[in-house]
Amino acid sequence: MTRAILVLGLCELVRTGLYVGFLPQQLGAEGLPLTAAGLAWTLHYGADTLCRSPGGHLVERFGMRPVLAASALVSLVTVLAMPFAPTALLLVLLAALHGAALSPIWPAVMTLSSLLAPEENQPRAVSLVSVAAGPFTGVGFLGVGALASLHFAATNASSRLHDIGGWPLAVLLGVQGTALLLALTLNAARLRPETSKRPTAPISLRRTLAFLIPAALVQTLALSLLGPVITPFTERMGLGQWGLGGLLVVGAGAAYSLLGVTGRLTTRYGARPMLILGLLLAASGLALMATMPPNWVYFVLAALLGVGYACLLPGWGGLVSSLLPQEGRAASWGVVMTAENVGMASGPLLGTFAWDRLGISAPFLVGAGLFVLTASVYLWPRSRGG
């Protein structure tokens, strides 16, 4: 499990470092348009999203070691080739191939965590895996970005090696190569339950996915719509970059520190109540932020959002783990995560539209409304005895 999480984290480090920290600066050195970096990221993310369900199916059929090793190998080749791309078209095609190559990793690791953990600990295991990539993503964004800034700002270097990336590219290749080596040490067995169980009826599986997919899309949509507007909002409120950093530290700190506690509470009281509690706490925090209170209150509300997220993660993970069948679980995880990615990709567009058309408080109110709507979706089966 640790090796699988490391493969996931290292690939996410490379992904974030490449498309956010390195590629925009490398394109400037090469004289290619900056919009190519944005298009490369969009197609990369889109290919990853569309291929997650097929990627999960491949892991089920052929096992983690061959599929994740092939994924890491193709990723290594694309990262190596991307700085040499002579045209923007070839660059974005390589980015799409990179996204498709990474698509099996998340379904594989999430499925492995739910299969290895005892049934009562599955919500905690899935939630911890969900946040495990966070630190790697931060290192990719900050570390690779800072290294690339120093590299391309060097005025006394004008060699071809400097233009294609030099040390920043070497670091990305080294990290991706490490992920490949770790993938080769994974268990080659297919992700199947050890005990034979009667296959789930197709109609039952379709109903389960039909219940999970809209909620997966809405809750990630609500989480991501603040992304592009949070910085201008904190500037407008007088908090500035330091204030924004403090809010992120408080919110993330509350979420990470409470995951163990909320995981145990989920085991004790059930996934659905904890998920609903988390959604309602997050909705309350966003709705109160929309009232534009005194600046110190924002830090209290950030902590409230962190508590809500700490309840939401194990609740959602436990709910999905309990509803998805053992047979075909990786492919089913892929379907659910495809819906999550669609919501994550759509959120920024909705957030900026609400900001421009309805005012600076609108994204927070829209997010709060979506969280309440999602909570009502999870309450519905209980009212019908399902």
Question: Can you tell me about this structure?
Answer:
With 386 residues, this protein is an all-alpha fold. The protein has 16 helices and no strands. It has helices at 2-30, 35-50, 52-62, 64-81, 88-102, 105-116, 122-152, 160-164, 166-183, 202-224, 230-236, 240-269, 271-289, 295-323, 329-358, 362-383. Helix 1 packs parallel to helix 7 (122-152), helix 3 (52-62) crosses helix 4 (64-81) and helix 4 runs antiparallel to helix 9 (166-183). The radius of gyration is 21 Å and the shape is globular.
Order of helices and strands: HHHHHHHHHHHHHHHH
Radius of gyration: 21 Å
Instruction: Give the mean pLDDT.
Output: 82
Overall spatial form: globular
**What is the tally of beta strands?**
0
The structure class reads mainly alpha
What is the terminal-to-terminal distance?
Answer: 33 Å
Low-confidence residue ranges = 382-386
Biggest pleated sheet? none
Number of helices: 16
Q: Report helical residue fraction.
A: over 70%
Give the assembly state of these chains: single chain
Strand residue content? under 5%
Q: How would you concisely characterize the structure shown here?
A:
This protein is mainly α and 386 residues long.
